[in-house]
Write a structure and sequence with these properties.
single chain, five-stranded antiparallel beta sheet
Length: about 400
């Protein structure tokens, strides 16, 4: 019988070759894994820096309104110093890769300028160093070689294997406060507007224009307002004339024939015939979404397109505690050019604008000749309800601004 022998096939590759290939593949896989880890670390750090840049920029931009508008209480240098400090502090609240706090060099990483929107091209023009300053940019860096600060290059875990021990990472954000003249509340946002329902006549308001440095103020100057002080209002003049929201015909103009001044009073921002409780609420907490719904969802006013509001001449002593509670807090009042012949709760006010003020002192329960709601014009107010008007350019006279928004 023919016997068949099992054929024995030898592997084409010897055991040593298999090991070498396996080792090569393993090294390659480890290299890829290391690269993935480092890329992920860089991406996480970039995300952390971007979050820090966004927060720092928005917080820094909130300082800008104090240096804008007529009669600004802060110089540009003071505003920039305050904004830089805020940027440093907010950045430090965010991680930066292997560091617990992101780093900002105030002189290098914080820039100021003027932002203008070009509606024709749909782009922003950012003029760094230009005035009025309504824009700030914050850079967060991890790209400095051999730095002793938190901006040093980001060390990689496996970069040495690829002859790249560090990575350069950077994030920036730019925020601006932008002008507007209309107040709206985004549905469901819970925002309130700083408008209070006390109207001021145009003639008296214009007498309180911030005076030229070489002229004498047109009204008394007995109080000072410093938004950073505690308390913000103190006795003693600050060079800014004061007005009175209480309906004295002769104040601040000594001429008792001044028209409309005696017709000052409350206006109905909301349903016709706002109750006393409605007005108290608006004084303390601002005008809400329901109030504005009675005006088509928002209010605006100009000489060309006035807003007609029902109201009541005079001022109730029942509002004294609410007015005292908001002393030193910026608010917005309607300015009227005229009232109709109606008196009492049948008056109508022709509103032609809204302007920012701060209340300094209140007495509406004492002797008639001493009653007053003393206020001061302030340069600007930044309010979440201000609708940004991209067609409007920031000027030295702009007084109504949005809260800061990111534009880059």
């Amino acid at each position: 019988m023919k016997r068949f022998r099992k054929s024995q096939r030898r592997s084409r590759f010897g055991g040593g070759a298999v090991f070498a290939i396996s080792a090569f593949v393993l090294i390659a896989l480890l290299g890829v894994a290391g690269l993935v880890v480092d890329m992920g670390f860089v991406k996480v750090t970039k995300t952390q820096l971007q979050a820090g840049a966004d927060a720092s920029t928005l917080a820094a931009a909130a300082e800008l309104p104090l240096g804008l508008g007529p009669g600004a209480p802060r110089t540009q240098a003071e505003v920039e110093t305050a904004a830089e400090a805020v940027a440093v502090n907010y950045a430090a609240l965010h991680r930066s890769g292997n560091l617990s706090a992101a780093y900002v060099d105030p002189g290098r990483d914080v820039e100021f300028g003027k932002a203008t929107y070009d509606t024709a091209t749909g782009t922003w023009t950012l003029n760094f160093g230009a005035t009025p300053v309504n824009m700030v940019r914050v850079n967060l860096l991890r790209n400095q070689v051999a730095s002793n600060n938190g901006d040093v290059q980001l060390p990689l875990f496996f970069g040495g294997a690829f002859n790249t021990a560090n990575a350069n990472v950077r994030a920036l954000a730019t925020a601006a406060v932008l002008p507007g003249s209309r107040f709206e509340i985004p549905p469901g946002s819970g925002f309130t507007c700083a408008i209070i329902p006390f109207a001021m006549d145009l003639e008296s308001w214009e007498l309180l224009d911030p005076p030229d440095p070489e002229t004498i103020p047109t009204g008394p100057d007995e109080y000072s307002w410093d938004p950073d002080a505690d308390p913000p209002v103190s006795s003693g003049g600050d060079g800014i004339p004061e007005g009175d929201l209480y309906p004295h015909v002769s104040f601040p103009n000594p001429d008792p024939t001044l028209p409309n001044a005696g017709n000052r009073g409350t206006v109905d921002i909301g349903h016709h015939g706002n109750s006393t409780n409605d007005i108290k609420r608006q004084l303390l907490y601002g005008t809400n979404e329901t109030d504005l719904s009675y005006h088509g969802g928002g209010v605006s006013a100009s000489e060309e397109n006035p807003l007609i509001l029902d109201g009541e001449t005079g001022l109730s002593a029942g509002f004294e505690s609410e007015l005292q509670a908001i002393i030193g807090q910026p608010r917005v009042i309607p300015i009227f050019s005229e009232t109709d012949s109606g008196m009492g709760d049948n008056a109508q006010f022709t509103i032609i604008g809204f302007e920012p003020i701060v209340i300094l002192a209140v007495d509406i329960t004492g002797a008639p000749e001493t009653l007053h709601v003393t206020f001061q014009r302030i340069n600007t107010i930044s309010d979440p309800c201000v609708v940004i008007d991209l067609d409007e350019e920031v000027t030295e006279e702009t007084s109504l601004f949005s809260t800061p928004v990111l534009i880059e």
